[in-house]
Hints:
mainly beta
Amino acid sequence: MWSAIVGPSCFACNADSTAFDGNSIYGVATPGGDMFSLSRANGASNWASPIGDGTHYQSVSTAAGVVWTVDGDSNLDGFEASSGLPLVRRPLSADAGGPVTNLTSSGVAIAERRLFVAAGGASYAAAPGWVIAYGSIDDGCADFSIAKRRAQRSRDRSGTCRPECMRPR
């Protein structure tokens, strides 16, 4: 048994879920907003990579070497599981067809080689919400490692990645 401190104490700041890939535990610590990876064996930090959220309620998911979450600025974020290297930062509003405000526990689910992202909604006001499906074996994205390789090769001027298979389907 072990325990690990991943961030400062803050009432209702760390309400997200963690993800596990068989070797490491992944989550987001706030305030500060760092995506982190901990060793399964002893809880030691493998890496931390900034997201910048003051609070983080969105779930964390992992598949095929990529860790996914939605940040408080309504972006889909993907990190290389082995190093924490940011691979994808995609504004959800580009795919939802309208402004997205993520102030709730929207998050990422992974099934059948696809990412399903719940996006939108506000904590205390009515706001539209979407589910956006990304990637498909039918369009050449047989797994998320392909998305990772494409992301590493296709950085735009802002430093964000736009892999071809991140287009909604």
